[in-house]
Amino acid sequence: MGKRYQNDVAISWPVETAERIIGDFFDKEGFVLTDYKGERVWKKGVGLMTAPQFVKTTCRQGGVQIEAWLKFAILPGVYCGEMGLNGFWGFAVKQMLRGRVEALIALLQQPGGQGGAEQIPAQPVTAEQTKRAAVSAPQDEPESLADSAAPAAQSEPATAVTQAESPAVSASVNTAERRADTDAAPAAQSEPAAAEAAQPVPPKMHDPVNKATLSLVMGLVSIVTWLIPLGGLATSIIGIVSAVPGMRSSARGRAVAGLVLSIIFLVISVVAWMINLAGACLVLSDIF
Predict the structure, then answer these.
(1) Per-residue pLDDT tens digits for 241-258
(2) DSSP 115
(3) Which of 19, 34, 35, 288 is most buried, most CB within 10 Å of its CB?
(4) What is d(CA 28, CA 11) in angstroms, rounded to the nearest whole number?
(5) Cα-based angle 233, 241, 249 (whole degrees, multiple of 5)
(6) Predicted structure pTM score
(7) Is 64 helix (H, G, I), strand (E, B) or coil?
């Protein structure tokens, strides 16, 4: 109590990407960026029902420093003292804030390379592929021999040795050129593939689907728990609180359904509680 939770988290993302992950996370969790005693911190709550939560993040190249704490709320908006995340006092809220901090750390430490993404290496051209391409080249060799023989027949007479060797020399030159072109082709084709494979992998952002699911579950449970007014109040409030971040998730419809059910049965629970209270007062008035 009185000592902030602190953790230095090593990351491989650049500072800009880490700040984007942090901002998206706290926005979806319902935190707002505010000034607190000259510090820029993320804050949630005004102390009306639970202690307000504070998180401060400091990003630098290769790491993020995270500080988290709670405040004692005397009145809504009037705080005193600081609580860390250890100790029995305010255990439920401390565990909630600790869970959020751990979820943020998991997002920051997801796999990612320098420059904002993890680079996927391109598949190199194997020797077998090169050999297979080279073997396919001599299929046109008879045609190239005939083509090279025609100019030799039309040329001026030369020595017998030169006339005998010229088709073979020409054929070998054509074959070497074709093999050189074939060897260069896979390398040229692999360049677009390498460029495509090296595209950056974007970081995974926070998606509070579990909050949307919890909201729907609490809304459905409230259909029964309203019969016990205090139980209906508890489940409905949990459903409403969980629906707020859940509506910023990919399961928005689930959160909306939970929010509607929770509000309906919160009203029913309050009315049932007032009716029971009025009945108890009448019974007591008859007794006395």
Answers:
(1) 899 889 988 899 999 999
(2) T
(3) 19
(4) 22
(5) 145
(6) 0.62
(7) strand
